[in-house]
Write a structure and sequence with these properties.
This protein folds into 2 domains: 38 residues; 53 residues, no CATH class. 58% of the residues lie in helices and 5% in strands. It contains 5 helices and 2 strands; from the N terminus they run αββαααα. The chain has a two-stranded antiparallel ribbon with strand order 1-2. Strand 1 and strand 2 form a beta hairpin. Helix 2 packs across helix 3. The longest helix is centred in the middle third of the chain and has 19 residues.
Length: 118
């Protein structure tokens, strides 16, 4: 391999070690990962679950578009749901993709076809 390619591979290895952080491999099973959400306590976890369920109820009943009246607190805390989504958003992985795109700038279609023919 050329020196530049070796440097690029070393850079990718270093970046993947530091940027691939959203998914963590499960130690006792192969090819299974976990994603972590952080909550303050069981009450907040319960709130997250209840709000996800209420949001699903509304999404399923598009005509009625409301939480059933048998549910005491009908308000859906969309901010809480979005906060969980932000925790799961793989920003570090996008940083890795950005760095890779800098290391390997997009080639034109003609160059790409020549590479494939080789």
């Amino acid at each position: 391999m050329e020196t530049n390619e070796i440097k690029n591979l070393e850079t990718i290895k270093r970046l993947t070690a530091s940027c691939l952080s959203t998914l963590k491999p499960v130690e006792d099973k192969s090819e299974i990962y976990t994603a972590e959400i952080r909550v303050y306590d069981y009450y907040e976890l319960a709130s997250v679950i209840r709000n996800l369920l209420k949001l699903c109820i509304v999404a399923l009943d598009q005509d009625g578009a409301e939480v059933p009246i048998t549910i005491k607190n009908q308000v859906i805390d969309v901010g809480l749901i979005l906060g969980i989504a932000l925790q799961l958003f793989p920003i570090d992985e996008f940083e890795l993709l950005n760095e890779i795109s800098i290391l390997f700038p997009a080639v034109s279609k003609n160059e790409d076809e020549n590479i494939i023919k080789k």
